[in-house]
Amino acid sequence: MRLSALTQPHTLRQRLLFAVFRGLLGQVPGPVLALSYRRELGGKHLARCYQQALRQAKEWSVGEVELFAVFVSSLNRCRF
Amino acid sequence: MSLPPELQRAFDALTSNHGATEPALRRGVLEFARSGSDTLLHLHGPELLSAGESPDSGVRRNNLREDTLRKFLDKVADRPWTITDEDVTRLCTQWHSEDLIFELTLACALGAGLRRFDAGLRSLEKAEAP
């Protein structure tokens, strides 16, 4: 189940982004929907956190970080 | 415990920027999930109960709504994999506000994440202690 509050785009940028995802994948991925909601409230800043943690870590390679993310997600019984 | 700058900005935005819910309520839910304390939730109980509700609603109905929301937030914080479509449908039926449900879920998830982050930092401190 998806909340319609998330699936409805609010800006032109979101409308275009959602249209691209729907064209390529048939639906907009959940994380994109969650991060697109009122971006000033959470999405904009959380996206930067993810970027920093998953792509800009200095001590580990991207592959190692992805492996950590898969492990943590599996503990949360969540597909990564 | 201080947070890395990007995480602190996310924390500040979620607990102070404009949304469909009161920032104080989001902060209360976040702290509830981060520390297990529900003091702030009690403090902001009236806002919680009145959000999305008509003024003539009865106390029993409010208690039921609060109980449903509380159980849902417990699941988000501790065992999100047990959340079902029925849980979300029940919340939507009782609260009539998907924005409220999502914003409080987001606050609760960030709080639960920070609880794990805090625990990780404490473990590192212990391991590095002489």
What does this structure look like?
The complex is a heterodimer of chains A (80) and B (130). Chain A is mostly helical and 80 residues long. The mean pLDDT of chain A is 88. Helix content of chain A is 65%, strand content 0%. Chain A has five helices and no strands. Chain B is mainly alpha-helical. Chain B is built from seven helices and no strands. In chain B, helix 5 crosses helix 7 (98-128). Chain B starts with a helix and ends with a helix. The interface between A and B is medium-sized, with 20 and 24 residues.
Features:
heterodimer; A: 80 residues; mainly alpha; 5 helices; globular; B: 130 residues
The number of E-state strands of chain A comes to 0
Largest interface: A-B, 20 and 24 residues
- Given as residue ranges, the uncertain stretches of chain B (5+ residues, pLDDT < 50) are none
Report the structural category of chain A.
mainly alpha
Note the overall shape of chain B.
globular
Structural class of chain B: mainly alpha
Proportion of helical residues of chain B: over 70%
First-to-last CA distance of chain A: 18 Å
Helix content estimate of chain A = 55-70%
The count of helical stretches of chain A stands at 5
Low-confidence stretches of chain A: none
Number of strands of chain B: 0
What oligomerization state is this entry in?
heterodimer
H-E string of chain B:
HHHHHHH
Provide a count of the helices of chain B: 7
Cα distance, first to last residue of chain B? Answer: 20 Å
Instruction: Return Rg of chain B in Å.
Output: 16 Å
How much of the sequence of chain B is in beta strands? under 5%
Report the order of strands and helices of chain A. Answer: HHHHH
Q: For the residues shown, what is the average pLDDT of chain B? A: 83
User: Strand content of the residues of chain A, in percent?
Assistant: under 5%
